[in-house]
Amino acid sequence: MMTMRHYRAVVVMLLSIAAAHEIEAVEEAAAECSSPVSVEEACRGASETHAGVAYDHCVAALGADPRSKEKDAGNMHGLAVLATKMAIDHAASTESKIDDLAELSLVHHQEEEEEEASSADLRFKFNHCLEQYGGAADLLRDALDNLKAKIYGKAMEQLAAALGASESCEDAWKGDDTAIDLVPVADHDREYGRMAHIALGFTHVAA
């Protein structure tokens, strides 16, 4: 008959075995994440698991950034961090360009003495886009912090939430034929969306 002392010893042994297996699994996952990987391999993996990632664009965008040649970007985790930093750069750049365009466009409307309602509508659209990109940049920075801490699940949630900025901004201008030349989201907005998808794809592979 098993005594209380023997019972406790068995429980301790089983807990030790379970803890050892858990540590081994974590170490294996960490090793896989830190294994050397090229930009091409990373982009291929992300494009196969994430529909928003285009392989050719991914390779071109990452390859053109000098930071992709650094040692820290030599594995999946490092590339996910880099892609997120690039998405932050694009969000900040797009927000800045929208702000500049808003100021020029509103001054033009005032000089042309166009209807107050038209100017108010224009201001609303620009402000909407600025809010979207400002919020996206904040989400991306939070995602970057979680990525660095290897809290991948939370990082992916934040990256996914930041994807909607470009689409929401574009939607604000739909149906406005008179402002077609003022739409501030053509090239910069599109590139931001692509980089945000790459960051999410890389993070998903690294997790």
Automatic annotation (TrEMBL):
Domain of life (superkingdom): Eukaryota
Cross-referenced SMART domains: PMEI
Membrane-crossing residue ranges in chain numbering: none
Record keyword Transmembrane helix present: no
Keyword Iron tagged: no
Molecular-function GO terms, alphabetical: enzyme inhibitor activity
Keywords: Disulfide bond, Signal
SUPFAM superfamilies attached to this UniProt entry: Plant invertase/pectin methylesterase inhibitor
Signal sequence interval, chain numbering: 1-25
Pfam families reported for this sequence: PMEI (PF04043)
GO CC annotation terms, alphabetical: extracellular region
Domain Pectinesterase inhibitor stretches: 34-202
Protein family per UniProt: Belongs to the PMEI family.
Name of the protein in its database record: Pectinesterase inhibitor domain-containing protein
Gene field: ga06187
